[in-house]
Amino acid sequence: MRHFLPESGTLWGNRVMGFVVAVLAGCVLAGCASCAGQPEQPVEVIEDTPPPEVEPAPVEEKPRVDDEGVPYDEDSGRPLSRVVHFDFDLAVLRPADIRVLEQHAAFLSTARDRSIAVEGHCDERGTRDYNLALGERRANAVVEFLTTSGVHQSQIADVVSYGEEQPVDVGSNEEAWAKNRRAVIVYQ
Amino acid sequence: MNIPKLPLKLWLWAASIIAAPASALDTIIIDQGYDDPTRIAVVPFETLDSTDAGIAQIVSFDLARSGQFDPLPRENMLSSPARAEDVFFRDWRILGIEYVVIGRLRKQPNGDLSVAYHLLDVFNERELTTRRIGARASELRDVAHSISDDVYEHITGIRGAFSTKLLYVLAKNAGTSYATYELKLADSDGARPRTLFESTEPLLSSSWAPDGKRVAYVSFESGRPAIVIQDIATGSRSRVAEYKGLNSAPVFSPDGNRLALVLSRDGNAEIYVKDLVSGELRRITRYPSAIDTEPTWTRDGTGLIFTSDRGGRPQIYRMDLTNSMVERLTFEGDYNARARLLPDGENLVYVHRRGRTYHIAWQNLVRDDGVRVLTATSLDESPSIAPNGRMLIYATQVGGRGILAVVSIDGRVKYRLPSAEGDVREPAWSPYMDTFSPGT
After folding, report:
1. Which residues contact A90 (CB under 8 A, 6 or more apart)?
2. Which residues in chain B touch residue A134, judged by CB atoms under 8 angstroms apart?
3. pLDDT at B420
4. Residue B224 C-alpha, separation from nearest chain A C-alpha, in angstroms
5. Cα distance between residue B404 and residue B409, in whole Å
6. Nearest-CA neighbor of A88 among A164, A8, A158?
7. Is there a contact between B220 and A133 if contact means CB atoms under 8 Å apart?
């Protein structure tokens, strides 16, 4: 197999289920709090915190995005990285990039009106036309992961390989090459 | 007779004055290769207005670049004859010179040029050839290269390729938001470059039609790759492939009527052939999990040689188009790609990885006697062969800059064509195009 397929469905499924469970729990709590005759909640605790969410569980609310429409990372609070990297001559997703791709997939699965293009890139070694094809294979590895994680094919607006033509680092060394072997998600 | 060999720095100097424009490629001879190059004297051509137009210098430099000749510097010449009857063979024999080229340049009242020259065999004291060429004033360099071709062929028996052109891409500020890419056309010595097309997006994979009148290349001008065919004389361009996904590696068939190309419209990189007359597109390779790319035609146009990683690593294969039979051609090393056939149809050159470096290598397909590495730099790619099969040009990096380099097919002669600015890459050596050749 060329593409890394973690127990991706399982991993992703677990995360989503976790999210759904939390949301449901929030609903139940909110519902209970509004019920007459229920035991009072400790008032002091509530007053200690900033104004509470009157309407928790933003099920219908769109996830937050930055100015360029890139969703935020749930872990870091920063916009999600849009770049994943590859080993030399390979188009296999690295385990370290799976979490980020899962979050892109989760976002796109809730924001069906959003679409992306995926670019594939290579380092300068090897021949240019082979690298164009290798870059496409890298971009396709990302697309395949996203679409098997719930993103609709119609949300993949474009897949473009630039091969070795657009390095982010023009150096001729391992460090530069590692940066250049990449796929980039571009929100449309 | 002890004749000092021409010092390298003299050739550097010669190159710098010949390839004058700032954007031209310089030519720097690295290794002249042969132990006993033919000693020739190209005497400065006689002119009436004493403006030495430089024909003799261009011819000398052409011959020196071949590695097979050691032209005599003009300051070492004992006389400067311009007519056959003025040549004293003894003068040249003393200097150890085997052949002498003499000539005259005249300007016509309308500005046209008239050039006459003779090639003389010193030891046998006879004339090997003489020719008179009429040309426009702008064609002085073409005349000089044509003389070089003629001299080279009369002495070596091999057709000269000095009148050919080079196609290449000049990239400036690649990897930045203000990058520019120019498709350039220059003489075989790097002189007289002109821009065929310029874009802020990448250009690559240039190749020649066999008639030398059209070129095909990949342009990202629309933001995605498309294959363009451009007419050199008129500049008119047509996009012949702009399918979803990859559009890359165009190569004209030997008859010029078909274009082999690489598309991924059916899922992954596969080789197709487009009939340029009917527009019909035919899929050639069918290997869904593999990259098939970088096609090149066999000499008779009935087969394609291409790169494929169907075996796990990129290797070179040949397909017979009449029966779709595929055979693997390379077995040494784990990266062999971007093959080109020599005109004899028997010898293959390609990019070969050895350890961590990428070299140009060649192998004979008939003898099957192993792989020979031709180059010593580490990021060599895009080999393209001169039409006479003597030399090949390729792209490499020296000092972090992309340059072009030429190596003789036996690996003994090497010269470099760095650009004064930017990175040069993706060279393609033209077919024969001597417009003054007696045969055309």
Report:
1. none
2. 291
3. 87
4. 6
5. 16
6. A164
7. no
